[in-house]
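Good morning,

Both structures are done.
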Amino acid sequence: MRNIKVINSDWLFSKNAKSAPSVCPQDWESLNLPFTWNGKDGQDGGNDYYRGTCWFAKEIKASDLPEGEEVYFQFDGVNSSCEVFWNAEKLAEHHGGYSTFRVKVEGIKETNVLSLAVDNSPNDKVYPQNADFTFYGGIYRDVSVIGVPKNHFDLDYYGAPGIMVTPEIKGNDAEVEIKTFIKDDDNCKVRYEIIADGEVVASCEKDGDDEAEFKLENVHLWDGLRDPYLYTAKAYLIENGEVIDEISARFGCRSFKIDPEKGFILNGREYPLRGVSRHQDRPDIGNALLPEHHKEDLELIVEMGANTIRLAHYQHSQVFYDLCDEAGLVLWAEIPYISKHMPNGYDNTISQMKELISQNYNHPSIVVWGLSNEITIAGAADPDLIRNHKKLNDLCHKMDKTRLTTVASVTMCSIDAEYVHISDVLSYNHYFGWYGGTTDMNGPWFDDFHKKYPNKPIGISEYGCEALDWHTSNPIQGDYTEEYQSYYHEELIKQIADRPYLWATHVWNMFDFAADARAEGGENGMNHKGLVTFDRKYKKDSFYAYQAWLSDKPVLHICSKRYIDRVEDITKVTVYSNCNEVELFANGVSVGKQTKGKYPFFYFEVKNEGETTLTAKAGELEDTSTIRKVDSPNEAYIMKEEGDVINWFEINTPDGRYSINDTIGDIMSTFAGKVATVKILLKIKNAFASGKDGEDGKKGGGLEIAGFQLSMGMIKNIYGMAKGFTVKRAFSMMGGKFTKEQILEVNAMLNKVKKPKK
C-alpha cells in the first residue's frame, strides 16, 4: 500500500555552498521547513532582497523511508527553480515556484543525502520576473516521501493526484466520470467507490485504465456558500485479488455558466461573484505558511461576506484550495504569466499551466483558468505574445472541457486588441481614482465595453487603493489615509452594485503584501491596498464596507476609530450597516436616525466639542468610538514618507493659478497649461536621459516606477489614466529622482499659468 511521510524537520541550509554534498555538512545552518531566505529582506524595501542560489540538504536513512518498492519525494512548493540531488547525483530539475513536483529515487544506501539547489535569481525564461510582489526564495511548502509498490497510481505526471473526477449535471441527477492513471498496470484492476456522508453510494470495478461512469440520482449539489457539499471518490488498485494502492479525491457536483448580461450563474440561479484577490505572504515568514495561516485567511474572507477569490498571481497551496471547496468559495486560478512577456518563457507558461490544471482539476471551487495578468504593459501587438496566449487557451480547453479561460487585462490595453478577445471571459484591472482618473470613471468604462461587446462577459479583476494608519477629515486621492480608502470603496461598491452584468469583481487586495521594490505610503517594501493589514490583526474600515454590502449577518461599524484628534467644529462620521435603521449618539444624545437607502452607508454630522463618545445603534447591535477636539492637527496622522521632502506650506498656491497640487488633466485643459506640461515633460525626459535601458536596449528609453521600467511609449499609453494625478504625486512616484528644489521650480512654472474662470 501507499505510505506517505512528511519530512519537514532537521534540514540544513547554506547561502554559500557551491555543489551538492555527498555527506551532510557540519557548518550549514539547521532549520525546519517551510522556510524562505527572504522573510526579512524581501519586505523592507529597497528592491535589494537576495535573489540567487541557496542549498538545502537532509540526511535520510534507509530505515526512515516508508515501505515501498519505489520511493518518490514530493515537493509542494520550491521557488523558483531547483535541481534535486540524491547522494550528490543530480536526479531532476524543476522550473516554477508555486506547484507540486515529484522525483523518484534509486540507489538507496543505509545513509543518504537529499539536497536541493534552489534559485530565485532573475532570468528570462521562468515566470514571474517582473511583478509587484516579492519572489520569496526557498522550500516554503511541505516535503514528503512516498513509498509505493511497483504497480501504482501514477506519480510522474505533472504532480497530479492520479485521479480525475468529472461530474455533469443532468436535471436532478449527475453523471460522474472517474479516470485514474496507472504506472505499470499489468493485469491490474481498479475498484471505484463514491462516498457520501460516510456511506458508499456507488461502486464498480474496471480493467486497468478504463474509465468508470456513475449516475447519482437526486444529486446533492455543491452550491456555493449556501451548501458546499462534497462527495469523495476512491480508487483501489487491485493485483491478484489484493489491494496494493489507494487514492481518493473530494469533488462537488455543480453547474455554472457565465452570461454576458446576467453575470455568473451557479446551478441555474444568478450568483454575482463579489470578492477579493489574495496574496499569501506574511510578516517575517513570507510564503512559508502553516495550515493555520491559510485557515485564518479563509475565515477572514468568509467573515467579510465574499463569495469569490482570485488567487493571484500563481498556484496556491492545496490546503487553501481544499478550504475553499469546503467553504463554498468560487475561485479564479492562474499562472504567474505576468507583466512582461518573455520570448524564452513560452515553455514555462505551458508547463506551469499543465501543472495548475492537472493538480487542481478536481476542485469544484475553481471555475476559470487565468492565462495571464497585465501582460500587455509594454503593448498588446507582439505576435509572439498573441501566439503564446492562443496556445495556452487551446491547452486549457484540451485539458479541461468543463471550465472557461480568462485574463486580467491592464487599463492601457485597448478593448479592441486581439489579446483581449482570446479567452472565453475577461476582466480588467482598473485603478481609476487611485493611479489617475477619478472613481466615477470606473462604471462608465465598463458600460462602454459592455455596449461595444455585448456578448463578451466582462468583470473587474483588480481595483483598490492604499491605506495605512494615516487620517484626515478631507481625504484626497493619493493621501494613503484610511478615510480615502473608505471613500474609494464606497464609490466602487455603488458602481458595481448597479451593474449586474459584471461576471466577477475582485478587490485588490484582501491583505497587505510585500513588494520589496515599493517605496510608498510611509512604509517601504509593502503594497498597502489590503482591506486587512499584513499581519491580519487590523481590519481597515473598507473591510466593513464590504461586510455591510455582502454579508448576510447583521453588521454595524463606526469608521475612523483610529482618528481621534480632530480640528474641525463639525465632523463627519460614517457608519456602515446592513440594518434598516441606524441611530448615532454623541455622549448619549441622539444625533439622529437614518434609514438605509440603496447602499449600506450612513453619514452623520457631529459637533466636535471636547471629548465625545460616539455610539451607533441598530437593533441589538451597538458600536462605539471616540473623537476629541484639538487646536492643531495631530502629526501622528500625517504621512511621513521617506524622500517626501516638500511640506505642504512650502508649495506656493496663488489664487487663480495652477500649482503642483493640481491634476495633470486640469492643467492640460488650457493652452498655456499644455505648454507648461510640455516643458515639464522635457525636464522629466532629460532627468531620465541617463537612466536605465529602455525596451530597445538603449539608455534613456524610459523611467522606473514601483520597480517597473516604463518606456516613453508606455508613458503615452498611461496618460489617459494619469490625468487624475496631481503633479506632486506624479513626482513622488518617480522614486526620488527629483529634488525639492527641482519640484518647486516646476511649481513656480505652474504658478504663472492662469486657471480658467468658472
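Second structure follows.
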Amino acid sequence: MGFSLGGFGRAMYNTTGSFENTQITKDRSGNLATTNIQEADTENRGMFGRYTFGIDYDISKNNFISSSIQYGVRNGNNQQNNLTGIRIQNDQTFRSLRDVEVTDNSGTVDINLNYTHTFAKPQQEFSVLTQYSRNNRTNNIFNDIFNSDLTTLDRRLKNINESFNQESTIQIDYQNPIGKNQLVELGGKQILRQVTSDYETFNAAGANGSYVKDPNAVLSNIFNYNQNVTGGYASYTLTTPSQFSLKTGARYEYTTITADFKNSQAGEVAIPSYGVLVPSINLSQRLKAGNTVKVSYNRRIQRPSLQFLNPNPQATNPLSVTIGNQYLDPEFTNNFELAYNTYINKSSLNFSTYYRNTNNAIQSIRDTVADPLSYNVQPGAIRTTFQNIGQEDAYGISIFGNLTISDKLSFNAGTDSYYSVLDNNVSDPNYRASNKGWVFNIRGMGNYNLGSGWGLQGFGFYRARQVQLQGTQGGFGIYSLNFRKSFNDKKGTFGIGAENFLSSSIKMKNELDSPLLSQRSTNVMNNLSFRATFSYRLGKITAEPTRRRKKSVNNDDMKGGGEGGAAQEAPTGQQGGTAPAGGQGAAPAQGQMQKPAGASGQMPAGGAGQFQLPANAPGGSPDINQAPVTTPDSTNQANVLGMPANATGTWNGRLSQFDVTLKLIAAGENLTGTVVTPRGEMPISDGKITGNELHFTVSFGPNPVPFRGTLAGDSLKLTSTFQGQPVESVLNRAK
C-alpha cells in the first residue's frame, strides 16, 4: 500500500492595470447611431491551487486498486475604478461614472476509484475506472452608478450567479494481445453531467437603499442542463519487425440532453439527441538513428461547457453584455497531420504540418443590444453570444527543438504557426462575417553555466494576434532573466530575477468590425516584476516507482476546459488515436505552451519556461494510443517487434563524480522511475522510450537536466550536460 500527498498554491494581490474602449454602433441602414468612449483603472486579486491525496493498494499479484481525492480552488476579484464614459447620441453628449467589481470564485472536488486486473498472459488487462467531479462557482457583478454630477450615487446594481457542474463517470477497458505483434482494445464509458445556473439581478436606490430583485425572467432565473453520454470504442494495433506501426480504431457516442428554465413560460428547452462516430488511424515508421515519421488522422468532438451555455446576462461593463446559448451543438474537427522527429548530435528536432477542419465551430458573435434597459446596459452596448458558425479551417506547421550549442550553453525553442479561415455563411449582409489570417506564437528558453556554481537562465514567449470571426484579439509577449547560485554541494540555491524589465506593462489591443458596429479597445497589464528565490534540501526523501502505468478517467470533450476556461484549444496539429467515450484521443504537439486562465504569466523560478498550473480537470488518461505495454516477461517479444526495449529494472553506475542507481519502469513508450544519488532520491520526468533509445529529465534542485540513453542488453549508456560539462556514463542492470 502506498500513499501520496501533494499540492500547489499561488496568490496575487492588487495587480494594477487600465483599459480604454471606443465603440461605434450603426443602424441597419448603416447610419451612425451611438459613439461611446470609456476608460478605467483596474486592480486584480486572485488565488489558485490544487491539492491531492492518493492511495494505491495491491490486493494480490494480479489485482490492484487506486483511489484519489483532489481539491482545486480558483478565486479571482477584478475592480474597474472610476469607469468614466462619454456617449455621443443624436448630437448630444452624456457623461457617466461608475465603479465595477467582479468576483469569480470556484472550488472543484474530484474523487477517483479504479480497479485493475492483470492476467498471466502478458499485456492482457481488465480495468474499471470511476470518477465523481463537482465544481461550485460563484460569479457576482457589482455596480455603483453615479448621478450626472459624477459625485453622488444614483443607484446600485448587482448580478448574483451561483452555479455548479457535476459529472459522474464509469469506464470499462479491456486489452488482449493477439500473437506476438498485435493488440486489440475494447471499452465502454458512461458520463452523467448535471449543470445548474441560478442567477438573480438586484437594483438599489442611492447609497443606502435596499436591494430589490428584478422580476424580469431574463435577468433572474434558474437554468438546468443535463447531459448523458454513452459510448464504446474498439482499436487495433500492429507493430512489425521493420519498425512500422499501425493503430486504427473508432468510437461511437450517443448523447441525450434535457434542459429547462424554472421561472419561464417556455419551461422545457427542446434539444435533440444525437449520435456520432469518431474514427482514427495512425501510421508511424522508425528510421535510422532513431528518427521517426508519423502520419495520422483523427476526428475530435467538443461539446459546449457552461461558459458557452449559461443564459445569465453578465454585464461586467455597461457597454457589453455576454449571454450564453443553450441551443449550441457540439463542434467536430477533422485533424490531418504529418510529423517527423530527428536527432542531430546532442540535439533533437520535431517538425509537423497539419490541416484542421472544424464544422459547427463554436465562436463568439457580437451585435448591438436592441433594448438596453432589459439588460441594464447603456445605449450603444454590444451583446456577445455564441453560435455554431459554418466552418473554420487551419493550415499550420509546428517546430520544436532542444539544442545543445556548447558545453555551457543549451537552448530549447519552438513555434506554432497556422493560417486560419473562418466563415459563418450567413446570407443577411448585416450579420455576414468572415475572416482569415496568420496566427503564430514563439517561445524559447536558454541556460548558460557561468562556472563556480553560477548560472544564467532566460525565457521568452510571444503570442501574435488571434484571428476571430469578427475581428482580432491582440498579441502579447513575456520574457524573464534569472541568475542563480548553488552552494553546499548543491543542496542550496538562491537566485534573483526580473520579468518584463524593459517595459512596465503589457498592452493588448483588440479590434471588432461588422456592418453594425466597430470597437477598439486596449487592455494594459502592469507586469514588471523582480524576484528573489531560495531553496534548500533537508534530509533524504525516497519514493518507490510504480510498477505499472496508472489509469484514470479523463473527460476532455468539453470545449473551453470546463468551468473556469483554464484550457484553450491548441493552435497546433493534433495527433492521437481512438479514446474512450468522452475523450478526444489527441495530444498537443510537443513543446506546446499553455497558459491557464487567471495566471499572470509569471514563470516559476527555476522552471522550464512552461505555464503550468494544476487544472480543474484530473490528469492521466487511459491512452489507447500507447503501444502495447512492455513487461519483463515480454522482453524478447518487444525486441522482435521493434517495440520499446526492456528498460524496466534497476541500473547501477557512476554519473559524473557520483555513484547512482537508476530505477526505471517502462510502459509502452512511457518511462517513469527515480534516480538515487548520495544526495537523495529524485523522480524522473518527461520519460519516453522508442526502440532501444530513451530520454528523461531529472531536476537537481531547481535545475532540470535532460538525459538521453541507449539500451544494449544489460547495459545503458547515458549522455547529458551536467554542470556545463558533457557527461557520458554506462550503467549496468542489477541482477
